[in-house]
Amino acid sequence: MPLSRGDLLMPLAATSSRTILGFDYGARRIGVAVGQELLGSARALEVVGNGEQGPHWERIDAIVAEWKPDVLVVGLPLTMAGEEQATSRGARRFGEQLAARYRLDVHAHDERLTSIEADSRFALARRSGQRRQKDAAIKDAIAAQVLLESWFAECSAGSRDERASDRGSA
């Protein structure tokens, strides 16, 4: 069941926070997650179909209309050596389509190990009774959640580094 914008808790109404949608691109499925930059946290939303005819754009249109994101993040599947591969080109193409379609900034972010982390989280949820085996399709959305959390962490670290270098040069 997809979440709605109202399901996310907004702790400080007066504080602006960008809404970010994350996409874990795959040839058959695209996991989608939403996050709030202020909190640095994300939630798995749903999995959208993808195939020879391309992504299920009507569903993605509905998600974008509902969540009104400020930025989009697409997972870039790299090899463990950090090199691009065939699926990387598909993810980049998908990111370009998103940028053209929604006129939003789209960031590619290294998604190495997100699927392994998603599998781990799903297994933990199954053991605790929160998920059942038939819910396995949601793993792609969980991978998108992990991707966004990683992106938030990297952005936060970059901000800390910039603030530290600003203090050092003053």
Features:
170 residues; alpha/beta; 5-stranded mixed β-sheet; 43% helix; 21% strand; disordered N terminus
Please render the helix and strand layout as text:
Elements (H helix, E strand, L loop, with lengths): L18 E6 L4 E8 L4 E9 L7 H11 L3 E6 L9 H17 L2 E6 L3 H14 L11 H31 L1
Parallel strand pairs: 1-4, 4-5
Antiparallel strand pairs: 1-2, 2-3
Tell me the β content: 15-25%
Q: How many distinct beta strands?
A: 5
C-alpha Rg (nearest Å): 16 Å
Q: Class by helix and strand content?
A: alpha/beta
Number of helices: 4
Largest sheet data: 5 strands, mixed
How much helicity do the residues have? Answer: 40-55%
Shape: globular
Assembly type of the chains comes to: single chain
Task: Give the N-terminus to C-terminus distance in angstroms.
Answer: 51 Å
Q: Order of strands across the biggest sheet?
A: 3-2-1-4-5
Give the H and E element order.
Answer: EEEHEHEHH
Low-confidence stretches: 1-15, 160-170
Q: Estimate the mean pLDDT confidence.
A: 79
Account of the protein in words:
The structure is a single chain. The chain has helices spanning 57-67, 86-102, 114-127, 139-169; strands at residues 19-24, 29-36, 41-49, 71-76, 105-110. The protein is an alpha/beta fold and 170 residues long. Strands 3-2-1-4-5 form a 5-stranded mixed β-sheet, sandwiched between helices. The longest helix has 31 residues, at 139-169.
